[in-house]
Each structure stands twice: as structure tokens, then as C-alpha cells.
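Narrative of activities, Objective 1.

The group set out to show that a structural description can be obtained from nothing but a protein's sequence at a throughput compatible with the screening campaign. Below is one input-output pair from the validation batch, recorded exactly as produced.
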Amino acid sequence: MVLGSLVAACFVFARGWAARGDRGWMTICAVVGTALPVLYVLAGVLSDRGADPQPFSLLLRALALTGWSWASLVALRVMRMAPGEDLRVDHAGSP
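Output recorded for this entry:
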């Protein structure tokens, strides 16, 4: 549940940064959103479905570090935005 929510948040923020024209943050969010499930699947595959706990544990730690580091950096970036700026996407022109 947490992993799925974090991945969804990555892509929601990627869309918000893209709407603002900030390609750097958009790319970071998209890469992290893609890397998190890849790390999760690799943890299962490389640990032989849990039989070898070492790669499983290491990759899950990498997943947690990546996800929570991203969340912290996004929070810092949003806190430093100028007053009145936001990441909302204007849907007025959408069909």
C-alpha cells in the first residue's frame, strides 16, 4: 500500500512539475517512480523468493532510502517555492 502510494505520488508530482515547465524535477520524479517498483521486483527475484535474505534486505533498504529521500527533497523544494506558486494543473481547457 505504501509503495503504491509513493509511486503514484512520484508520477503526480512529475505531472505537476511538467505543467510548470520544470523538466529537471519532472525527470527526477519519473525516474524515482519507475525505480521503486523495479527495486521491489529485483528484491524478490535476486533473493530467490525470500530464500536468501541478504539481497532482499539490501534492496529493500535501497528502496526505502530512495523513496523517502525523494519525498524529503520534494518537500524541501515545495517549501522553498515562492508564495502563491503551486503545482496544480489547470484543467479548464480539458475536454
